């Protein structure tokens, strides 16, 4: 396994000092398991490379919004990147601060803007002219000025999956590069907005640095024009998107990535500006796994199936993106391996977690779906009226339940039948 927080001890998979088998016994399956040490190390890789530079890290809450996970980052001084008032509430409940929070997203409602502005968020990342007008109105009604950064679409190819590539012209995200200067002029003319920055987010699971450098070059070119129009750009937000190893990808090391971007911006003569990073996946992806157990082994004419108790409602990425997650047994068996598709109990052919995997397993064995810390639990659903999994953080030789397993009765507690 790629991350030392998850390793075998005498043939049994452990997270830090705790065996996955004991976690399954104590908390049941399916179970999301995170390593505090892995979360801490990933955050430090960003923070250490930013130390002494004009740079800030805003954790993208969408990747993993468990309160305890956010709290681990908040304790280390992280800022946050949110896309809804729900995420904002989580940040505040987890000990994060409004003044270290940036508000992204293409469809903020007036109510969300009002709440965030009243609380004093650091910046609104605005994506369209109508949104600028809406924010200006909200700020006016509060007698305030809203700090604004435009998310510009630099039209670069991040060379990633089309569903998670966001910097191309054809995406719904950001202000088109060609319109950006005029949009800034409009923002500048609105009395209740204060232009403070510029940003982009070109996609996710990006494994090369060059698309970032291309995007930064385009942003800096714009910054010079915008400043000659009388605005002052204090920060440049380079977004998130750094990839992780799911299979055989070799993304840049976090520290190298941060340093390369900061050095590049400095060399281009913009070292006086603060640089914001918005990482999600690279902080949490390989700090978490999904633990599941095999209900049945079902041999077939063309394929063998290992039917497990986790499903597409627990981890949507394979069904959604045909994403690859490594799958390993918790206890290594000294037996003949067979080829299996790992599937869940949901009534959809798309309900699979892994295909064509060589595994030596028996019914009742535990499996670990690796690299499930990002966009795992947060995209889980109650499809097929399945209660969502519990979440646990391992810290050294202790395991703490940080989200209880849902109970079925909670799932329809807000529903009612017709009176007649
Ligand atoms: N900032 C903005 C504005 C974003 O839209 C995103 C992710 C991030 C930061 C964090 O990106 P990261 O560092 O995690 O790549 N569900 C998909 C990924 C969707 C990413 C959405 N935006 C998946 O499971 O692969």
From TrEMBL:
Record: residues binding pyridoxal 5'-phosphate: 241, 278-281, 375
Instruction: List the pathway annotation.
Output: Amino-acid biosynthesis; L-lysine biosynthesis via DAP pathway; L-lysine from DL-2,6-diaminopimelate: step 1/1
Keywords recorded for this protein, A-Z? Amino-acid biosynthesis, Decarboxylase, Lyase, Lysine biosynthesis, Pyridoxal phosphate
Broad class of enzyme this protein falls into: lyase
The UniProt entry, under SUPFAM superfamilies, shows: Alanine racemase C-terminal domain-like (SSF50621), PLP-binding barrel (SSF51419)
Q: Name one Pfam family in it.
A: Orn_DAP_Arg_deC
In terms of domain of life, where is this protein from? Bacteria
GO biological process entries: lysine biosynthetic process via diaminopimelate
**Database matches in CDD domains:** PLPDE_III_DapDC (cd06828)
- Cofactor requirements of the protein: pyridoxal 5'-phosphate
Sequence ranges assigned to domain Orn/DAP/Arg decarboxylase 2 C-terminal in this UniProt record? 32-373
GO MF terms held by the record: diaminopimelate decarboxylase activity; pyridoxal phosphate binding
Modification N6-(pyridoxal phosphate)lysine occurs at = 62
UniProt EC number: 4.1.1.20
**What residues make up the catalytic site?**
347 (proton donor)
Annotated ranges, domain Orn/DAP/Arg decarboxylase 2 N-terminal: 38-284
Q: Which NCBIfam families match?
A: lysA
Its assembly, as annotated, is: Homodimer.
This protein is called what? Diaminopimelate decarboxylase
Organism equals Candidatus Paraburkholderia kirkii UZHbot1
The gene from which this protein is expressed is lysA
